[in-house]
Amino acid sequence: MLGKKLQKAFNEQINQEFSSSYLYLSMAAYAESMNLPGFAHWLRLQTAEEKGHAMKLYKYVVERGGRVELQAIGQPPVDFKSPIALFEEVLKHERKISALINKLYETALEEKDYASQVLLHWFIEEQVEEEAAANEILETLKMAGEKGQALIMMDRQLARRGQG
Ligand code: OFO
């Protein structure tokens, strides 16, 4: 049985994951409006991943006999200054999520809840990947530039996400 403190913390994290999903969908919509279908594709897949994270937590809370309580999701930003500014936001957001996951892990340690610790190992590893992926794209954009041919090449590269 999940303790009350952890149940509250997991419910907050479920909200964070759905909020992340919504944020990336808003970013995808921005990319569509900029005629960057590859960026939009990458961001839509990210939206689906975040929903997957939320549902992994949802399923876990239910399995542990806890009660899932969904919370409100705020309006995400609509506009971004540029593709670089957008990926700076992605990286900043993923770092924020990593800090929240670490805090959740600390609570699981304090509560001596070993099952939650095991589940959160997956999320801690996932965050390493998420930050690395965002950072790589951001650094490439900074290096190659976000105009003309360089941007078209980057768009094509991001369009390949999910193709193995
Ligand atoms: Fe982006 O990893 Fe979940 O939030």
Short synopsis of the structure:
With 164 residues, this protein is mainly alpha-helical. The protein contains five helices and no strands.
CATH superfamily: Ferritin, core subunit, four-helix bundle
Low-confidence stretches: none
Derived from helix and strand composition plus strand pairing, the structural class reads: mainly alpha
Task: Quickly name the level 1 CATH class.
Answer: Mainly Alpha
What's the SSE pattern? HHHHH
CATH architecture: Up-down Bundle
The geometry reads as elongated
Number of strand segments: 0
Distance from N terminus to C terminus (CA atoms, Å) equals 39 Å
Mean pLDDT: 97
- Domain tally: 1
Q: How would a crystallographer describe the biggest sheet?
A: none
Offer a few descriptive terms.
164 residues, mainly alpha, Ferritin, 78% helix, binds hydroxy diiron-OXO moiety
Could you explain the architecture of this structure?
- With 164 residues, this protein is an all-alpha fold.
- It is built from 5 helices and no strands.
- Bound molecules: hydroxy diiron-OXO moiety.
Task: Give the helices and strands, then pairings.
Layout lengths: L3 H30 L3 H27 L19 H28 L3 H31 L3 H12 L5
Helix pairs in contact: 1-2, 1-3, 2-5, 3-4
Hydroxy diiron-OXO moiety binds next to helix 1, helix 2, helix 3 and helix 4.
